[in-house]
Amino acid sequence: MAWFHKGDQGGSESKGDRTFTFWLKVGESRKILFLEDIGTDSIGFWEHALTVDGDWQNKRRITCTMGSAPCLVCEQHFTAQGKDGKTESKKFGRYHVNVVTVMDMTPYTSKSGTTHSCTKKEIPMKHEVFEMLTGKSKIRRDNGFPAGLKGWLVNTTRISKKRGTQEVSYSVGNDFEPIRNLLGDPALDMAKEGLVDAQGNPVDLNPIDYVKVHAPPSREELVTLFANHEITDGNLFSGAARRGTEETAKTSDSTGINY
Ligand SMILES: [Zn+2]
Questions:
Q1: Model pTM greater than 0.85?
Q2: Which end of the chain lies in a sparser environment, N or C, as judged by fewer CB atoms within 10 Å?
């Protein structure tokens, strides 16, 4: 049995193949271009999110192999403060995601000073977001676009909403405004649309090679990681963790549901 499957069956990247994960701050809007559709063919798998040496902005996503092979992360424990303030030993959580590739159309300047007009990113979707986007895809298909969301330029905004006493928002955004079917345009001008790399060449519009970039690290690699670093549970979907300060991140873990 493989560690991934297609569709929402409820169910790491390799060195040098790190993917960018798409997420928004609360209140933020971005234009994204869907490079594939979402639905029963979407790749899904279980994963862990690890915080390495307290760097909560840079979580390490590790594919969980439990069910097909022993998973070293599932066997580990970390120490954390419990509700009563006492230190306790905890197991790492794991969660199921389906994934989709988008082009983030917000220009970005790397540390080396190179400006990129767009960046290929992955959206990891928990069940609720997967269902929402599958619904958006169906609307496109019902309206004469058989490729669903593929090729659509969409404006997405993250709006925080109250659910009972809790603030709820999707890190991918919850207000989706389709702009136009960009890749379906036979007169598409890649340069004009900003779909070029730093050298002005058209960018690769293929989805991320998930099987390659999420291949579980070797047991040896994980043993080394755990032996040499302080590893705690990264809680990837804690949106406030990406909002600004470590303080809000800590607060969110106990009060907010974020996807
Ligand atoms: Zn695991």
A1: no
A2: N
Residue 73 Cα to ligand 1 middle (Å): 5
- Residues 195-251 have pLDDT tens digits of 999 899 999 999 999 999 999 999 999 999 999 999 988 877 754 434 333 333 333
Helix (H) or strand (E) run with residue 115 in it:
strand 115-116
CA nearest neighbour of 52 among 72, 74, 78 = 78
Ligand 1 center from residue 137 Cα (angstroms): 31
CA 140 – ligand 1 centroid, Å: 36
Q: How far is the CA of 162 from the centre of ligand 1 (A)?
A: 32
Q: Could you tell me if 42 and 98 are in contact, meaning their C-beta atoms sit under 8 angstroms apart?
A: yes
Distance 196 CA to ligand 1 centre (A): 38
Cα 241 → chain centroid: 14
* Model confidence pLDDT, tens digit, residues 18-46: 678 898 988 999 999 999 999 988 999 99
> Is 51 in contact with 233 (CB distance < 8 Å)?
yes
